[in-house]
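In pairs, describe these two lines:
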Amino acid sequence: MTELRRRMLEELRLRNYASNTIAVYIRCVANFAQYFRASPDRLGPEHIRQYQLLLVQRKKISWALFNQTVCALRFFYHHVLHRDWMIEHIPYPRHEEKLAVVLSTTEVAAVFEATRNLKHRTILMTIYAAGLRVSEVTHLRVADIDSQRQVICVRQGKGRKDRQVMLSPELLRIYWKRCRPTLWLFPGTTLEHPITRGTVFAICQQAGAAAHLSKRISPHTLRHCFATHLLEEAIDLRRIQVLLGHRHLKTTAKYLHVSNLAVRTTVSPLDRLPDANDPTPVR
């Protein structure tokens, strides 16, 4: 391990970054240095500009991955090299406003129906029933399920925060009786380790294909559905924010754009015109 990588790891751990974030940041800076075949402390603004153009124009990576690279480089130059003047040369892209993919309740039911494996179906149902992130559902322990109080304790979610979400009474009943998990609620290939994020993504994509959905779905789609369907049931935004574990209400407010409640309850101006449904032929 190089001295710079060791220092970056230390700075990330001192700030209590999540293990997944640490891995992503280290990989992004390593890829940047590898492209130029030079230590990153020898690279400057022009190298960063060339690399950002490479990512956007040639590799055509997603804006989410591009943002991760920007965050990683800004962290490296600010906290590891203490070159604050470099930050202005690592700009964020303009944020894209895209509507999240949301399934109807009928489509969600079809996904569950198409998932024949009990453990796989229970994982997907848990994400939807409690609005969990994929990393949160994979790290659920048996001890996190409080059946007496009907709550699920989410330990150290995004932002290193604990929270509680509701436990649907019938959610785990059959799975618990048949599988009897001991440590991890959803163990992986061995009982000592939880199921992986990649496996849950694969399960979700297979379920979407089996349900013959035209929409491409991921575990986060089910989390979007949780929030949107609650909003359409007139649950207030603040309560949804708490259940999702969002730090800022504006993050939760994006579901106002994908909910069709406002659309369905708004009368089109066409319907307010006199004789709109019985037009007289134009001569």
Summary: Strands lie at 145-146, 151-157, 161-166. The chain has 14 helices and three strands. The chain has a mean pLDDT of 87. The first strand starts at residue 145 and ends at 146.
